[in-house]
Input
Amino acid sequence: MPFVIDMRDAAFGYGSEPILSALSLRLAPGSFHFLTGPSGAGKTTFLKLCYAELVATAGGVAIFGENAARLDRDGIALTRQRIGVVHQDCEFLDHLSIRDNIALPLTVTGRDTPGQDSNLDELIAWVGLTARAHARPPELSGGERQRAALARAIIMDPDLILADEPTGNVDWDMSLRLLQLLCELNRMGKTVLIATHDMALIRSAKAQVQARVLRLAGGRISAAGADL
Amino acid sequence: MSALADVTSLLRGETQADRVVPRSGQAAKLTLAVSGAMAFLAVFALALSLAAGRLADRWSQALAQSSTIRLSAPAQELDIQTWAVLILLQQTPGVESARALSDEEQRALLEPWFGHDLPVDDLPVPRLIEVIETPEGYDATGLRQRLAAEAPGAVLDDHTRWRAPLVAAADRLRLLGWLSLGLILASTGAMITLAAQAALASNEQVIRVMRLVGAQDAYIARAFVRRFTRRALTGAAAGAALGMLAVALLPRAADEGAFLTGLGFQGAGWLVPLAIPVLAAIVAFWATRIAAFRTLRGLR
Output
């Protein structure tokens, strides 16, 4: 089975100055990773390389065994259907209800069949948003938005979940709740990569999951001490 | 994804997918208004083109089969020479019939210039002989030579000299009508492209999110193509209907009315403007599709 993400000496930069360089990393299927580092270290850029929003300017990035640089636009779309992304700012369509936003990946891939309704309702219940399903995104709190973003990220049953500071805008209890959801997904076999600078969150994951902690600093990635 | 899939989707309608892209008020109004106005103008361009075509055909056909012999001779010889010319014409292959115009007919021809009290008998007005040709026609050069021998004062006018520029003018008018129609369609396409680009630009965030969750370009483009094609069809249908009503309300054609009162549609010609909304929809379909894919290529 190919690695979910396989970076070999990858680099990325705008112009001549590299933001990231010499990135070599392999994410095995079903693994759990934290990506830490100070603000501005390039964690979001790293995640963008993982879902082909950016293309490495040097080296190579393979996603599910496919060279990301060689994917055409349809290839990128099909690859993203296997990746669930949770952004820090969530990025919803404000004119749609939360239920429709969560179902968006099904809608745009033509899988929004009536038979999916019960699965969708189950998922909304799993993230605790049943009562808010018909609200618009601006009406939701930060925690509710993060849970909705997580539900949207996993509605397509993806193989890889990428979360960029998923607990950045929520209180500690909600952070733990979100972490618990991500750990549950990992136990279902999903590969999870969470970018965060919240070390308390990483420590609290210790009891729930076997995770590897990566540190991004100075444009390079390294293992941050012992794995959890 | 092929254009055929887009057409199928257009006809089937995908209300769920349509909802994903928010309605953009300004672009929608612009597309409706432009399509309506352009269709209204297109109806008139079409009416002009068809009327000019009819005129060219009429002049071409009506005058091509007839000619005139103008006979000038001293009053005492006029009847004899007329008789001689008519006999000659009877014997000329390609001439179906020939007759001398009566004094009343000649007076009627001159009336617009000289009034109705014209004393034709007292004036040295040449005798006019109308010649109707067979479909094969006659040999004009041979007939002129024989006329010169039999009636030196006879001049054959087969209308070629002044018919050709008239027919050419009508043909040119018809061409201009079609050219106008083409320009109107091109302008419609350009305006819809601009409106589609504006809608795409204002929905960049929506498109970004759709791409993020795995939407393919064809799906995103279809949402815009469907919307703009339907708007163009609706606007053009309304504009064409109003244009046809306006043409129908033009004054009826009269003998004195010349060209302008004949500007309109006749018989099955009324069906032709019905193609305008369909053409507008086709133009909108391609204009939006090209604009959408061009914009999407700029986004990762």
Notes: The radius of gyration of chain A is 17 Å. The mean pLDDT of chain A is 89. Residues 172-187 of chain A form the longest helix (16 residues). The CA atoms of residues 36 and 215 of chain A lie 5 Å apart.
